[in-house]
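Support case: zinc ion complex. Customer-provided input:
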Amino acid sequence: MSMDQTPCVIWQGALAANGYPVAGKTYMHRASLALKLRRSVRHGFDACHTCDVRSCVNPDHLYEGTRSQNMADCTARGRHNKPAGEAHWGAKVSADDVREMRRLSNLGWTRKALGEKYDINPATVSRIVRNIWRTEVSA
Ligand SMILES: [Zn+2]
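Agent response - structure generated as follows:
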């Protein structure tokens, strides 16, 4: 019987900008795997999902894998073909918000202030205002 037969347990708390479940600074899928392993996930290893649902914290869907394994799995499952922009899992802000955020940033708003206004973390604001993320939105 496949381990994948239990349903995903979707984390109801916050998600990091990369889509993984977080509580404070702790990645909850890693914490869930560590509980199953009864030790921490080894340095240089990732908590990988067999179900390919980043926000899933079901320990049955998690295994300790190397980063390259994780990348290989991603590629194999086509995670790199996710839609961009608002359809993307990471999109919490609309295209209009992105434009407004870039405008306000040019006016001198700090990333922290923008993060509070739009309820996203300052690192995400930073990526948006530096045009590293949400690049599909033009001015
Ligand atoms: Zn799952």
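The chain has two domains: 3-81, 85-129.

Case will auto-close in a few days if no follow-up is received.
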